[in-house]
Design goal:
single chain; 465 residues; alpha/beta; Rossmann fold; 3 domains; 4-stranded parallel beta sheet; 15 strands; binds zinc ion
Length: 465
Amino acid sequence: MPTPSLRLYNTLTRTKEDFVPIDAANVRMYVCGPTVYDYAHIGNARPVIVFDVLYRLLRHLYGESHVKYVRNITDVDDKINARAAERGISIRELTEQTNEIFQADVKALGCLEPDVQPRATEHIAEMIAIIERLIAGGHAYAADGHVLFSVPSMPEYGRLSRRPLDEMIAGARVDVAPYKKGDMDFVLWKPSSASEPGWDSPWGRGRPGWHIECSAMSWKHLGEVFDIHGGGIDLVFPHHENEIAQSRCCFDTQVMANVWMHNGFLQVEGEKMSKSAGNFVTINELLHTERFGGHVWSGPVLRLAMLRTHYRQPIDFTAKALEEARRKLDTWMRAARLALDGEAASQAPSDDVVAALSDDLNTHAALTSLDRLFNTAGEGQDDAHRQLAANLVFLGLASRSELKKPHVEFVSVDADKVETLIAARLAARAAKNWPESDRLRDEIVAMGVTIKDNKDGTTTWEVKR
Ligand SMILES: [Zn+2]
């Protein structure tokens, strides 16, 4: 088998590199998963979708049984304790409920299940083993029921984030504690009160810090050094820097993972998402309510909207972008279903789609290839549209069973004309010219379009099925 030419941007080196797996028969990837205390927001969906695309690509390039993808579930965390107490339910109940919702959300987004989804609470023994080795090696110390990692014991600390020392100290949100020897030393283990979850350890009953969880779970399932470690850009410091410090110092290795990949930030309608700004939007709301943009959005539409921007770029998540994605996916699906005519889509994606993704996951170029197939006219059209179907499956934008469903009646709509008529109707309504407004509405409906007037004064539309 020829070596597939995959190039990935590595945060560790700040360059795009040829990807060379440690063992092509066992390509290993770890991605930081959710802390299960609340609904996942749309920003959480980005790494899940991005690394699902990479997982699919790796399986295509190296073979399905030669890739191991691990995404953890953080089910011990102080945010979990606080939320469970607030809701008056047990920690177990809260983490189980939240994880169930998360799994359903990401399935709807077209994501394959990772090979392993380890839970932090099931890897306490591995965490204790790592901490003991770090203490023995002079990289950690126990004090006052706590165990802390000694940052000065690792000269290469900061290599991933490349931050100046003073900035890292500020970023570490230093809490002044008498048991701390160095400003940047971070917690590996901390004592638990009787009401907090805790496990027996050589340092008394306690619980792990967040960073040690990922070092333990990646070690258990992928080994001391593995190929790819992924997550959102916000995790570079301190989380990933600390994971690296723990794993490298414990196992005495040059790297923890060879390639570190990070997806860019996500904002909503041009603003940073936050509960206080009122623009906090969960995957679950998007899928099941009309809260965002006045529509219930399907998982594939959310996925397509996400993939139209390169994963390293910041993304602005807007209702307008979702509407565009919805229309695009709708036309692709109709064409693909017509061409398949009830048959199953083939297995193989187009070479140019694979080539685009192999260039550091250039999803934008891959989607352009889908457009090109869609726009093929004349004799080769059916073949092109069947190929379009195969690519939709490969990219996780459609399931084989969805594509086998008969197509709904194809309604060709001039979107620009609809927008113009809607604008004219809004103007008529503003002028309280009701006969004109009604006339325009009838004209729009006659085009096979349904419209909906929203509370905020806007009008949204869709092609009637
Ligand atoms: Zn992690």
